[in-house]
Specification:
By secondary structure, this protein is mostly helical. The chain contains four helices and no strands. It folds into two domains: about 15-45; about 60-95, no CATH class.
Amino acid sequence: MLLMTPGPIAIDPRVIAATNRAAITPEHPSFMEVLDDVFQKLRTIFCTSSWVTVLPGSGRMGLEAAIVSVLEPGEHSVHLVNGAFGELARAGPARR
């Protein structure tokens, strides 16, 4: 196994064993069990009983999702720009 990480690290044998198992895809009969278990663990980690949404995408997608969830069309907001993500937020989804 080739790991491109800084420095030597110890990998738990359980992790190596898990990477050698076949993937459980959405077509697999136990996929929903695994997915429900992951969501329950995420609720525990984030200390919530609410639904947890996983966004399979870039940081920009998460940023845009957060912004459009709280702003209505036509509303204004103030953005402090101190880097790439601040600039993305200032530009907004409509002005790309």
